[in-house]
Amino acid sequence: MSTTKRLWFALGTLLAVTFAALLWVGGGIYQQAPPLPERVVVAGGQTLYTRADIERGRQVWQSMGGHQVGSVWGHGALVAPDWTADWIHRESQALLDAWAQRDGGRRYAELDEAAQAALAVRLRKEVRTNTYDAASNTIQVSADRAAAMEAVAGHYVSLFGDDPATAGLRATYALRDNTVDTAEHRRAMSGFFFWTAWAATAQRPGAAASYTSNWPYDPLVGNAPTSDAFLWSVFSVLFMIAGIGLLAWHYAVWHGKEKPLTPPAVDPMSLLTITPSMRATAKYFWVVIALFLSQILLGALTAHYQVERDFYGMELSSILPYSLTRSWHTELAVLWIATAWLGTGLYIAPAVSGHEPRFQRLGVNLLWVCLLIIVVGAFAGQWFAVMQKLGLEHNFWFGHQGWEFVDLGRFWQIFLFIGLVLWLVLMGRALWPALRRRDDLASIVALLFLSTVCIAAFYAAGLMWGEHSHLSIVEYWRWWVVHLWVEGFFEVFAVAVVSFLFVKLGLVRARTATVNVLFATIVFMAGGVLGTFHHLYFAGTTTAVIALGASFSALEVVPLALIGLEAHETWSHGRATPWMQRYRWPILFFLAVSFWNLVGAGLFGFLINTPLALYYMQGLNLTPLHGHTALFGVYGMLGLGLMLVCLRGLRADRPWAEGWLRGAFWSMNIGLSLMALLTLLPLGVLQLSAVLDHGYWQARSAEFMNQPIVHLLVWMRVPGDTLFAVGALLFAGFVARLWLGRRGTAPDLAVLPEAGS
Amino acid sequence: MVEFYLQIKFVHIAAVIASGSLFALRGLLMLADSRWSRHALLRYTSYAIDTTLLTAALMLTTIIHQYPGAQSWLTVKVLCLVVYIVLGTFALKRGRTRGIRLACFIAAIAVYLFIVSVARAHHPLGWFASL
User: Fold this and answer.
1) CA angle centred on A75, ends A186 and A342, rounded to 5°
2) CB–CB of B68 and A312 under 8 A?
3) Which residues of B touch A711 (CB under 8 A)?
4) CA–CA separation, A519 vs A152, rounded Å?
């Protein structure tokens, strides 16, 4: 069996085994998710919430933006509190104060240490005892707890309305007045918050921890890390070190043993015939620029809402509240990067096969129109939802689903899925002749095609939940999309495309590239598939999720430890021949990808990766630290680099404004670094310190967020963000000049001097 | 944030002085035909100072709740800032003749001083308010 066949066999086996485990453990989540009761009743028999209330409450929460306003079980936005932790804290305080008043006529805070300790023990017993009765499908609470719950529910009814008593909190949380339209809906939403808090404190039957493995950290109610979290954190680090050792050994034995290839005299890519469908992809890249700039603007607004509800005197928050700016900011990140990659795929495919299928250009144009309709339609629906003008009946299908990164209404999700299938068809018919050739390139082309199949097919995971699916189950499938789809199959696609480019440029042998791509895919899919679980440690899941998630996601760091080798190889390609000067900027963007892969994905990702670390850090500013540096740093930079390769072919006759690109490249990289180092990292560490000292709720509270030092750190984003935005504008200016600038004389760098003379 | 008002104002004023001084220096270097006027070090220092200046300015507006567009003295400051930037660009880079560059340089300095006077007076007419 040849090396290539062995690698294909290994990849197939790996994917079969890891997906079987992913599905098997997923099945466990279905069976062991925290129960959603028919009724929550007081000991005397009065019903506090019905299942319908809780489900409707979740719909209300989704309609106002869900994950985009505060968070639940640690998943979501950062300015408003985590509603689970907030409920637990408020209910505990209300209970303790009520007991202290009854016992001695004083508030809990005024009691001596012994009395406080006695009441704390009583509180733990009260909230940790699981009073769910499976036979009657009810949760029973004491009269004292019911009174405390009523007080907390009243707080939320006030907060999400326009009560002047909570106006200050709304300003701090960046909530507009009447965030939720009716008092009835606000009350139902409090039922949903209660249920998430109940599941986070009530002991799972037969276990020593709550349904959320004791998340959030709150010593007052006895929520502390489980022994499993500690054990698997330690083991995961060991696995990672072992993985790095093995990979280093593999590199030492196999890497760099081949003689370097002599590059051709002429840039082979410059000889490509640009077909009509390839030319039609230009508009994808214009849209990428438009979406990228919009995303930055919305990001600036979102960050600003952290220090001021209005925007420099403009009452923007009443028509464009935080919930929307953040929704669109996060969705646009995925959308523009995906558009850049889809466009690259459509540009590359006919170049791979040398075949322009009939009506290919029509398909490319049709897909582009579909993407525009999806963006505009989905965003319009979200605006109506968040402004509470759509009604709950239509929210799921056309409004705001409230699940971060997959917030589009179901109708738009299906439309996007159809669009991706159309992309797959367009890619498939263009690649088909190359797939049938069975030459040296066949395996890379097959992998490229396989990744397009997976990109189209796996988005369907986002359709696996329904309007009323259990929260844990939605989270399970949501991370199939966000982790597996974005971090997994897009990654395969990216590696295959970049390798293909180097082969096409004549810098790497097809066989070498094939082996490298297959091996790289095996290495990162080994950690990547089951690494999905590292997002789900505390989402009402089982210990198996913590064990597998921790162990395999630590393996995701393994290839990053040796990324310097890859970066050096890329850099060497850039210097292989004088005509590679044509690709100086794509190469630099690819090098930036390696750098941010190590820093953003590797360091900042692993910072929050182990169960023990994430237990304290989930939903703090350390999450966007990883998010920004990994999503833009790796995928964004890659999207821009790939786009530059395509533009080199699309506008071959235009001179490149090197100065604009240089400014764009360094501004974006330095800007991103400043954003991370001046704000997100210090603010995250400050929050972490608050979590460790007081409990998770404190780091997300208004009291914490209103500290002058927090505002100061948020303001420190301005220098980095400004620089970043200038970089993006320079990049946009560079692209605009390729079409709008004078035709000029492009220096003919495509050939070696002697070959050209 | 009001706790840091004085410190932020200090940073703002210091950045204004640094920014103006650096521009004056680069202008004089330009008049002396020195290539140092466009030297990367001076350019990047200028970007850094101006970004600090902008950050402090934005912070101050939200602390005192006065904004360009709403308060005329701030509106005038922003408009004059645009004029100052355009004049500065022509003075250091885009002016085709030495005469144009010199005229733009003098005009830019005048606009800069006027902005300072508007800031000190909190009045859109600056120095001319007392006339």
Assistant:
1) 115
2) yes
3) 1
4) 54
Burial of A129 (0-12, 13-18, 19+ CB in 10 A): exposed
Contacts of A89 (CB under 8 A, 6+ apart): A218, A220, A695, A697, A701
Does residue A2 carry a pLDDT above 90? Answer: no
**Quick one: closest CA in A to B69, which residue?**
A313
> What is the mean predicted confidence (pLDDT) over A500-507?
86
Edge to edge, the sheet with strand A132-133 lists A47-50, A39-42, A138-141, A132-133
Q: How do beta strands A39-42 and A47-50 pair?
A: antiparallel
Cβ contacts of A608 within 8 Å, gap of 6 or more: A614, A617, A618, A622, A623, A626
With beta carbons under 8 A apart, name residues in chain B contacting A312: 58, 61-62, 67-68
3-state helix, strand, coil in chain A (%, to 5): 75, 5, 25
What predicted TM-score, i.e. pTM, was given to this entire model?
0.91
Q: How many other C-beta atoms can be found within 10 angstroms of the C-beta atom of residue A25?
A: 21
Best mutation target, A309, A317, A706, A712, to test chain B (most B CBs within 10 A): A712
Q: Which two tokens stand for residue A410?
A: 């179901």
Do A289 and A738 form a contact (C-beta atoms < 8 A)?
no
Confidence tier at A263 by pLDDT (50, 70, 90): confident
Q: Which of A559-563, A621-625, A740-744, B52-56 has the lowest mean pLDDT?
A: A740-744
**Separation of alpha carbons A31 and A21, rounded Å:** 15
The one-character DSSP state at A203 is: B
In this structure, are strands A132-133 and A138-141 parallel, antiparallel, or unpaired? antiparallel
Task: Indicate if ipTM > 0.85.
Answer: no
- Domains of chain A by residue range: 36-224, 276-437
Q: Which residue of B has its CA nearest to A712?
A: B1
The DSSP 8-state label assigned to residue A653 in this structure reads T
At A156, is the secondary structure helix, strand, or coil?
helix
Q: Compute the distance between CA of residue A474 and CA of residue A468 in angstroms, rounded to an integer.
A: 9
pLDDT average, residue stretch A665-692? 96
What is the rounded distance in angstroms from the CA atom of residue A556 to the CA atom of residue A534? Answer: 11
Secondary structure in 3-state letters for A228-265: HHHHHHHHHHHHHHHHHHHHHHHHHHHCCCCCCCCCCC
Nearest Cα residue to A471 out of A13, A158, A74:
A74
Least confident span in A362-371, A404-413, A480-489, B98-107: A480-489
Give me the mean pLDDT over the A199-221 stretch. Answer: 96
Is B54's CB within 8 Å of A715's CB?
no
Closest-CA distance of chain A to residue B75, Å: 12
